[in-house]
Amino acid sequence: MNWNTKRRLVYGMAVIFFVTSLTLYVFREVLFPAPSCFDMKKNGSEIDVDCGGTCSLRCSQEVIPISVNWSRALKTSPTVYDFVAMVSNKNIDNAPRVLPYTFIAYDISGKELKTITGTTSAPVDGDFPIVVQNIVLTQEPKEVIASVTNGPHFNVKESPTSPTLRITGTRYEAGSIPRVYATITNTKRLTISNLPVRVVLSDVEGNVMGVGETIIPFLDKEETKEISFTWDVPFANAPTLIHVYPIFDPFLSNK
Fold first, then answer.
1. What SS3 state is found at 8?
2. CA distance 156 to 104
3. For residues 89 and 130, what is the distance between their CA atoms, to the nearest angstrom?
4. From CA 115, how far away is CA 186, in angstroms rounded?
5. Quick check: helix, strand or coil at residue 52?
6. How far apart are the first and last CA of the chain?
7. Are 165 and 220 in contact (CB under 8 A)?
8. Exposure string over 94-133, b if 16+ CB within 10 A, otherwise e
9. CA angle at 187 for the pair 181 and 190, rounded to the nearest 5°
10. pTM above 0.70, yes or no
């Protein structure tokens, strides 16, 4: 091989090397993509495929399933009932974006009387009620069974040690139209719209005697408001326990 041939070969290899290096550099993100939470692979800091670690989606092994503690049907008139279920989310830093639920009322023979479905937000680290009011039934139900559908859970910034909403100063007012008053405070510099707030009234033995829900249209940054719940029919006795639950969407803290 003469010198001219060798020189051409060296120049050709250099050109090929340069073009290959340039191509790899230009298309490096396509040819060698960085690990992501959406690549259908277990990589990076992930605990499983596209979940855990720095991913917003939590892996199933990191999540405590949301459960129903109990459910009731409360008669408010001869043919009208309120359904209530107490639900538990024991996770302190994750929740589903929406929580679907189902109530099924059965008669004494086990026949289905009514099915109610819906969705709710799931506050973190604690129990909260799902309330559906003014359900008309053709006969008194033997039991009402509530269930929730556990879907994917995602990271939230809402902290149980520093909750966005605080309830203080609850009081009951008897009368032909009984009322419960409560004070709610937004502790953060975050505006909140259309906030559901639910109440559960119980007697001295812990038996549920009434439930309610109100919607706060707007709660400004660090604002305090008094809210109220009313019932059309007086209770036989004044409630001993009053529990008020703001159904705060924990994903609002992420914004």
1. helix
2. 31
3. 12
4. 35
5. coil
6. 70
7. no
8. bbbeebebebbbeeeeeeebbeeeeebbbbbbeebbbbbe
9. 110
10. yes
Adjacency order of strands within the sheet including 208-219? 208-219, 192-202, 241-246
The two three-digit tokens of residue 168, written as one number? 């203080």
Q: How far is it, in rounded angstroms, from Cα 74 to Cα 209?
A: 7
pLDDT in tens, 41-81: 899 888 999 999 999 999 999 999 999 999 999 999 999 99
Give the model confidence (pLDDT) of 170-182 as tens digits. 999 999 999 999 9
Nearby residues of 149 by Cβ (< 8 Å), 6 or more positions away: 99, 100, 101, 102
**Distance (Å, whole) CA 231 – CA 179:** 7
With CA atoms as reference, report the closest residue to 167 among 198, 133, 124.
198
- d(CA 184, CA 176) in angstroms, rounded, equals 25
The amino acid sitting at 77 is S
Mind giving me the DSSP string for 182-199? EEEEE-SS--EEEEEEEE
* C-beta of residue 130 within 8 angstroms of C-beta of residue 101: yes
25: β partners: none
- 237 contact partners, CB below 8 Å, separation of at least 6: 203, 209
CA pair distance 94, 154, nearest whole angstrom: 5
The residue written with tokens 């041939």 in the block is 5
* φ, ψ of residue 211 in degrees (nearest 5): -140, 160
